[in-house]
Specification:
This protein is mainly alpha-helical. The chain has one domain. The protein has a two-stranded parallel sheet.
Length: 120
């Protein structure tokens, strides 16, 4: 098991302006992942993958929903869901999970935004 613990107060990396990210959804995606506990062990190649994936997410939020599968595959490799983390043998201590949940954007807001995007 890989025990991960988020660094409290860590603001993550700044979103590179050169990516030209336009949507709030992609900016939120970057912010979430740049602060995720998994990133404490990332190399520069991993950060490059996050940049590429964030560009895909930006395109997704602009209406290119065909990218959903590719995005899901990429974030799954990083441990995006409980199932992914179990498969990757990642474990977070309970306090870290509680703190991360409290700092996360409201899931209902994200669900509503995605529903609206996919319903167009």
């Amino acid at each position: 098991m890989h025990e991960l613990s988020p660094a409290l107060g860590d603001g993550g990396r700044a979103l590179p302006k050169a990516l030209g990210i336009q949507t709030s959804g992609a900016k939120r995606f970057w912010k979430s992942w740049s602060r995720a506990p998994q990133t404490q062990h990332w190399l520069e190649t991993d950060w490059t993958e996050l940049e590429i994936t964030t560009v895909l997410v930006d395109s997704f939020y602009q209406g290119n929903t065909r990218l959903a599968g590719e995005i899901r595959q990429r974030v799954g490799r990083w441990g995006a869901t409980t199932e992914d983390r179990a498969r990757l043998r990642m474990n977070f201590n309970e306090q870290a999970e509680h703190e991360a949940a409290a700092a996360a954007p409201c899931a209902a807001d994200l669900d509503e935004e995605l529903f609206n995007l996919l319903s167009e």
